[in-house]
Amino acid sequence: MRYYCNICKKDITKGEFLYSIKEFDKPLCREHQDLLRKNKIQLTKINPEEIQKEYEDFVELKTNNLDEELIYKDSKNSQMSLGKNIALKMGRGIIRSARKVVRFSKKRFQIRKWKSIILLRMTKTQLKKLCLEKKINLNKTILEEDDSSGEEYWKEVKRTREDLVSILKIRLKLDTIISFTKRNHIDIKDILNDIERIKAEWKVKELKDKIKKNGNKILLEVKKVILEFVPFRHYDKEIYYQDTLAQFLRSKFPDTKIEVSVGSTRPDIVVKGIAIEIKGPTSHKDLVSIADKCLRYKQNFPNGLICVLFKVNVSKQLYKEWLKGLKEYHPDVDVITFP
To answer: Looking at domain 233-338, does it have CATH number 3.40.1350.10?
Structure first.
């Protein structure tokens, strides 16, 4: 069997192939392994303060070297050089990009951490079962040396528990691992709560960035506030979710109203001309009814429509398909779900 680099197509040994699959999830020669490793290290070590310093040096250099006619629009009235203004914009762009890279790296690290914690709660038998389900080899190849001849050779050995955790963490997605724990009744409720909490924090941060980038848009502000809402408990009736969310919104937006009738529509909550439709506990019938409301509500509430779903009691696959269809036909409708 021929082993070759996925990038340059150069022939590699079986040992290089197996090592590369384990570390980088694809076959690479040593040169491209080193290159990818350096890039990863560089990304994780990005420091916004260093970028800020480089940007300030860039501003100083450009300002000192630009021609006087370019630096000043008017020699008497200009307060900032044209060159410095351009450099400031470039500098802000560099810093924003660096922050995105750092945030992405932190998310990736956090997801790997969750995967490790969940996998470590499994027994070796359960880890093997997961490997077999996903067609992951239970053995690994290691390089050994012959005591008598001193020659090196490759030997296939069974993976240890730590090896199984390591390979599954790299190969599988977080949702796949969580799905396996549910099917095999492995208790990870505390981890799932932590995942929900931190993912909600990520959404709030992303919305804050959008508000900064696009200006003070009321729809984004309302959505951000809803994401910060924490229900007191699970309710059996929708009206309790409606009342508690309305009270929370009223603390931020005093003009929040309940069930305002406009034409044939009467959304559960209205904030700044934005319709908010609430479902909870959410059944398949509730999801079907939302599509009809999307058509009518947007005619009477042009500022936007937000659907807030509490305790969705449908299969994960059905919900994914419903959400995909809704986004396809109503891309401007926001959907927020609470467990």
So the answer is: yes
